[in-house]
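Exercise 7. Given the encoded structure of a 449-residue chain, write a plausible sequence.
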């Protein structure tokens, strides 16, 4: 019976739950007033190629357990990849020992028992296939072959990669919760290099899904990588100016990622966010909406509960541009005298409401300005909102792309950028935890020549 068999995976999940129950019981016996443990097991394959030759083939079969114990308001944590009974016993003992030496923190402890996911939905996250080496190699070779054969200007490759992972995840705590589920994740990517008149450019394409049958074909991934790379040839700088900037949907999620950081409890209780005291206030245009849907079937960021066992639920994060909720763990919530929002471990499937424009209509709305397709560097300060990053993309005039640009910097302040969003495109990027169309900002400083 193969590992991928449903019965085997269900048995593995049951075995993990028994281990979690055992370490929690041991923690209580050793003097913990509260305890929580999480454990995962993942089996996978990763194959990479370059210039249609296999470079690496890796199999993984990893597992690990982490436990946190509380003695009153003292906390200790330990983890192990050795799952033998003696190693698990030692891990619990070390967590108990660490707790003795930590300071009292009245905000520490498990999340409220009333919020636990004692009953949670099945989210269709598990779609197993055999971890077949020949199949994986075929995928990367086909992707590279399609890319390299697309145009003679595609002169080199940075390679193609295929990954498949099948795993089980369990979380339990001394409130009586012991919950888990199986999941899968598959991806294929290809990166190629184009050359023309001594100039070289690189770009990529990728596909990712819970269900391997729903991945884009390797030929499509290769052709897209070639097309994107060829489109960058002939890039030039532009003159320094203040212009409208359109963040292509592939990178627009990153802009929302900075917003997530700014409304996350860790930054808020430390007074390290440009959106302090923004709850219930207008932070985005009055037509802008963000909804979170944790229970989307097969969703890449779907989860029935967060890393603290809190049951996830639908949340309207922003309505009419007004911030309705921060993103809190139980610890940050206690620091802020609020209640956890179930965001230990991050967000769960954000949907950014679009303003209805197609790609061509978004360019027309942009008019004359910059379409950004790549961002570089880490010049973002979540404390002040200052934003400055290297960029590449395309110069647009009267709604028509004129030529590719590179070696430029775009700058602004995130608070202003968020309030000055003009439109969100209807064509949505769906390959991540944030589903959004391209985002148009009315004006940013662009530094070039």
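Solution.
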């Amino acid at each position: 019976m193969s590992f991928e068999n449903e019965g085997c995976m269900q048995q593995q999940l049951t075995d993990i739950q028994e281990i979690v129950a055992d370490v929690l019981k041991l923690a209580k016996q050793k003097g913990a007033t509260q305890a929580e443990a999480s454990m995962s097991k993942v089996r996978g394959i990763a194959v990479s190629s370059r210039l249609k030759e296999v470079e690496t083939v890796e199999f993984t079969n990893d597992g690990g357990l982490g436990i946190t114990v509380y003695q009153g308001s003292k906390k200790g944590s330990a983890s192990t990849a050795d799952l033998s009974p003696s190693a698990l016993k030692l891990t619990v003992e070390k967590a108990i020992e660490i707790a003795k030496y930590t300071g009292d923190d009245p905000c520490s402890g498990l999340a409220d028992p009333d919020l636990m996911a004692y009953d949670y939905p099945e989210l269709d996250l598990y779609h197993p296939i055999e971890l077949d080496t020949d199949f994986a190699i075929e995928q990367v070779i086909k992707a590279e072959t399609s890319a390299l054969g697309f145009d003679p200007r595609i002169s080199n490759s940075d390679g193609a990669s295929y990954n498949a992972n099948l795993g089980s995840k369990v979380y339990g705590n001394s409130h009586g919760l012991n919950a888990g589920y199986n999941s899968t994740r598959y991806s294929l990517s290809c990166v190629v290099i184009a050359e023309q008149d001594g100039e070289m450019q690189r770009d990529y394409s990728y596909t990712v899904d819970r269900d391997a049958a729903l991945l884009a074909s390797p030929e499509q991934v290769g052709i897209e990588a070639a097309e994107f790379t060829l489109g960058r040839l002939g890039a030039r700088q532009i003159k320094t100016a203040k212009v409208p900037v359109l963040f292509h949907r592939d990178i627009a999620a990153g802009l929302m990622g900075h917003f997530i950081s700014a409304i996350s409890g860790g930054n808020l209780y430390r007074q390290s966010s440009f959106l302090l005291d923004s709850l219930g206030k207008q932070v985005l245009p009055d037509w802008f909406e963000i909804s979170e849907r944790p229970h989307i079937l097969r969703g890449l960021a779907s989860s029935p509960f967060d890393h603290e066992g809190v049951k996830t639920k639908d949340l309207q994060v922003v309505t009419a541009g007004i911030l309705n909720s921060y993103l809190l763990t139980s610890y940050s919530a206690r620091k802020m005298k609020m209640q956890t929002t179930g965001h230990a471990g991050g967000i769960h499937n954000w949907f950014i409401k679009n303003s209805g424009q197609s790609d061509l209509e978004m360019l027309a709305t942009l008019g004359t300005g910059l379409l950004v397709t790549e961002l570089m560097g880490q010049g973002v300060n979540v404390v002040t909102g200052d934003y400055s990053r290297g960029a590449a993309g395309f110069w647009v005039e009267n709604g028509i792309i004129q030529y590719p640009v590179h070696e430029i910097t775009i700058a602004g302040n995130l608070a202003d950028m968020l309030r000055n969003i003009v439109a969100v495109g209807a064509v949505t990027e769906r390959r991540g935890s944030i589903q959004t169309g391209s985002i148009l900002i009315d004006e940013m400083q662009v530094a070039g020549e």
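Remark. DSSP finds nine helices and 17 strands in the chain. Students should compare their own answers with the one above.
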